[in-house]
Each structure stands twice: as C-alpha cells, then as structure tokens.
Amino acid sequence: MSDLQPKPSVLFVCVHNAGRSQMAGAFLTHLSQGRVEVRSAGSAPADAVNPAAVEAMAEVGIDMSTETPKILTMEAVQASDVVITMGCGDTCPIFPGKRYLDWKLDDPAGQGVEAVRPIRDEIEQRVHDLLSELLLH
After folding, report:
1. 129 included as an active-site residue
2. Does position 106 have pLDDT exceeding 60, yes or no?
3. Residue 84: which CATH number?
4. Does residue 103 have a pLDDT over 90?
5. Considering 26, 36, 84, 88, which one is annotated as catalytic?
6. Residue 116 belongs to a domain
7. Residue 100 parent element (H or E)
8. How far apart are alpha carbons 125 and 48 in whole angstroms?
9. Does residue 89 lie within any of the structural domains?
C-alpha cells in the first residue's frame, strides 16, 4: 500500500459502544498496526466500557481500560469506508457509497468474562478476515 493510497477506515457500531464494538475496534487497531483508521460508536452509549470485555481483551494482551463509549455521529459514518453494525438496527444512518456489514454477535452486556470469551474470539476471527480483505484492495 503506497503513501498516496488513503488508509481504509472502519466504523464499528453497537447500541452501547461498551462491548462488541469496543472489542472489534481494539482488535482492528492492534492487528492493523496503523494501516487502518478505526472508529467505534454507539447509538445510546453506556457510561463505561463493559468490565468483562476489558478483562477478556486483557487476556489476549490488548488493553481497553482507558476506552470510553462514544456517541454515534453522522460525521463518523461519513468519514468511514466500511460501517459494521452489531445489533444497532435502524438507528445507524445509511449513506450512499458506504459499505455496510451487520455482524450478528451475542451481546456481552451483563455477562461474566466466561460468556464474553467466545464473543471476543468470534470478533477476532471476523476482524482478521476483514483486515485481510481491506489490505488486499
């Protein structure tokens, strides 16, 4: 990828921006090593990131302890090439020319770390697949 090529950008969206979208954003940031611009947001952000999600990510060497849920903005959607929704349904604005993916994942809200691990692992696999696709183009 040349320096003239803009970095692909991805926005992960779920309702609370406290679990799934945070884990997906953290994995993509970690795995892309700066080659992808990563955002995450929620249509109704929680007050804090899910502690079980933070713990599950720490187990695989990724620190999310300083992340905070962010509100979904039109600007974030417009600035992204790929928008990946995770259970936010119709609350995510649709813009022509954007690529939308909907990842069906269990919601880790209120779950312990044991329940979050399989969700984390599925997100990691999907992020690996997405990354290889983004960097091939």
Report:
1. no
2. yes
3. 3.40.50.2300
4. yes
5. 88
6. yes
7. strand 99-102
8. 25
9. yes
The reply to whether 47 belongs to the active site is no
d(CA 61, CA 28) in angstroms, rounded, equals: 13
- 2 pLDDT above the threshold of 60: no
Active-site residue, selected from the candidate residues 13, 14, 83, 105: 14
How many domains does the chain fold into? 1
Rounded to two decimals, the pTM is 0.92
Instruction: Classify residue 130: in a domain, yes or no.
Output: yes
What is residue 90's three-state secondary structure?
Answer: helix
Any domain includes 41:
yes
Q: Which candidate in 11, 64, 92, 131 is catalytic?
A: 92
At 77 the three-state DSSP class reads helix
Question: How do residues 23-57 score in pLDDT, each as one tens digit?
Answer: 999 999 999 999 999 999 998 999 999 999 999 99
Q: What angle do CA 81, 63, 133 make, to 5 degrees?
A: 30
Using DSSP bridges, classify how beta strands 82-85 and 99-102 pair: parallel, antiparallel or unpaired. parallel
Give the per-residue pLDDT at 4. 58
| The pLDDT value given to residue 75 | 92
Enclosing H/E stretch for 94: none
pLDDT at 6: 80
Domain that holds residue 76: 10-136
Average pLDDT of the segment spanning 127-133 = 95
Q: Is 92 a catalytic residue?
A: yes
